[in-house]
């Protein structure tokens, strides 16, 4: 059994310039094959943005024990794993939540499909040298400025009773939806990668879990986080995703379901320092959530 890990740290600009080339000459056959087939021609090529995490090494071990040949490819940004999947460079990816996928599908006229849920990573507010929200009124809070995470970050502050919206219940509020007169704090949207720097300078900041890890910030230092078990959290369920024609590929599903093995989950918990919440939803439930999010995205 052969397991290959390819660390493709190529930037989006380079990939866009050179094109996404399939890893093997068999990719076109795999992409156009019978969706009902459980056969997999060649290794299962899996894309992610955090291949260095322990969970991926453990997944490799579990895949080998299950008789699956896999190849893990790491990408340096959040756009190219879906592009690579669409163009046949990958067979599946696992790096995104359903909200991000809905935005990608609508924006690119795509039909990428979730097959197995993985986890929800709570989004949290951090404030250097503070262990509560006491005294935060009047502060300006740094939040990620990308559309997918900005709305969620604003809702974190709504749940913390720091921000009031002009209209309640918005899934993806924008800064324009904030009632500034009724709110207790202001927000400063910045690039997600800059939120740890803002935190380091003493500014309260909402920081994505992946950037916490890179900046060496303990996620347990959060002064507030959203509730991963609430209905409002459904858009942020992470999942293994495939092309629509592979939605019934039993070999890929078998690999994806290994993510819920005790061994992989122990590694996920270690990687996330106990903040990850395992999610098990059926493929049909995931698709229903995605359909709802895509409709909302089209109407926005």
Automatic annotation (TrEMBL):
InterPro entries: Lipoprotein_NlpA. The keyword Membrane applies. Residues 1-22 form the signal peptide. The keyword Lipid biosynthesis does not apply. GO terms for cellular component: membrane. Keywords: Lipoprotein, Membrane, Palmitate, Signal. Its main location: membrane. Belongs to the NlpA lipoprotein family. This is Methionine ABC transporter substrate-binding protein. It comes from Corynebacterium stationis.
């Amino acid at each position: 059994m052969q397991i290959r890990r390819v660390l493709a740290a190529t930037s989006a600009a380079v990939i866009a310039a050179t094109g996404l080339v399939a890893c093997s000459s068999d990719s076109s056959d795999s992409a156009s094959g019978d969706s009902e087939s459980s056969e997999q021609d060649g290794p299962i090529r899996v894309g992610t943005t955090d291949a260095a995490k322990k969970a991926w090494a453990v997944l490799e071990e579990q895949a080998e024990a299950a008789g699956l040949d896999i190849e893990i490819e790491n990408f340096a940004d959040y756009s190219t794993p879906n592009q690579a999947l669409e163009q046949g460079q990958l067979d599946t990816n696992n790096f995104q939540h359903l909200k991000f996928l809905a935005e990608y599908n609508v924006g690119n006229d795509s039909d990428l499909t979730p097959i197995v849920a993985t986890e929800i990573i709570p989004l949290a507010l951090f404030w250097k040298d503070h262990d509560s929200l006491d005294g935060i009124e009047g502060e300006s809070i740094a939040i990620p400025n990308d559309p997918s995470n900005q709305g969620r970050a604003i809702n974190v502050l709504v749940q913390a009773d720091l921000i009031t919206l002009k209209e309640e219940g918005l899934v993806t509020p924008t800064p324009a939806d904030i009632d500034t007169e009724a709110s207790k704090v202001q927000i400063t949207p910045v690039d997600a990668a800059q939120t740890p720097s803002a935190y380091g300078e003493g500014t309260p900041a909402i920081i994505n879990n992946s950037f916490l890890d890179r900046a060496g910030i303990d996620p347990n230092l959060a002064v507030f986080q959203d509730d991963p078990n609430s209905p409002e959290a459904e858009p942020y369920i992470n999942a293994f995703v495939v092309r629509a024609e592979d939605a019934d590929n039993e070999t890929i599903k078998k690999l994806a379901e290994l993510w819920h093995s005790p061994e992989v989950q122990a590694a996920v918990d270690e990687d996330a320092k106990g903040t990850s919440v395992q999610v098990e939803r059926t493929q049909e439930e995931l698709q229903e959530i995605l359909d709802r999010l895509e409709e909302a995205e089209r109407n926005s």
